[in-house]
Amino acid sequence: MRPLLSAALIAASLALAVPSVFAQADRPADLQPIPEPPPPPLPLEGGDVTTEPQVTIIQKADERVEEYRMNGKLYMIKVTPSHGVPYYLMDENGGGVMTRFDDLDQGLRVPKWVIFSFD
């Protein structure tokens, strides 16, 4: 049992040592440090441009309505009935006409084919 343990220790130490040896051999001699990245941009201030939607929640007796606005323009409504599945009303082209969607799924379907099974 001891020879197997010592062989495993030697193999592990070689696996750790070999990549560092090759990494040191390929390094050029004239390396310069990487410059500091620029600071992140400042948030938008003033004006009528916002980066986050404004959400208004209206709680009724039998449903909950969430209105999503960007720059004051209503673009989506989520209706959650007390008995049932939520649905969405979305302004797809900005014309003010709302289209109903039962979910926000974009239609991507991952195939789940069985290629092989073990009996």
What's a concise summary of this model?
This protein has one helix spanning about 1-25, and strands spanning about 55-60, 65-70, 75-80, 85-90, 100. It is flat, with a radius of gyration of 30 Å. It contains one helix and five strands.
Question: Any overview of this molecule?
Answer:
The protein has about 120 residues and is of the alpha+beta class. A five-stranded antiparallel sheet has the order 1-2-3-4-5, with no helix packed on it. About 0% of the residues are buried.
Category by helix and strand content: alpha+beta
Total beta strand runs:
5
- Helical stretch tally: 1
| Helix content range | 10-25%
In the predicted model, the low-confidence regions spanning at least 5 consecutive residues are none
Q: Main beta sheet: strand number and arrangement?
A: 5 strands, antiparallel
Principal-axis shape equals: flat
Layout of SSEs?
Layout: H1 2-25, E1 54-59, E2 63-70, E3 73-81, E4 87-91, E5 98-101
Antiparallel strand pairs: 1-2, 2-3, 3-4, 4-5
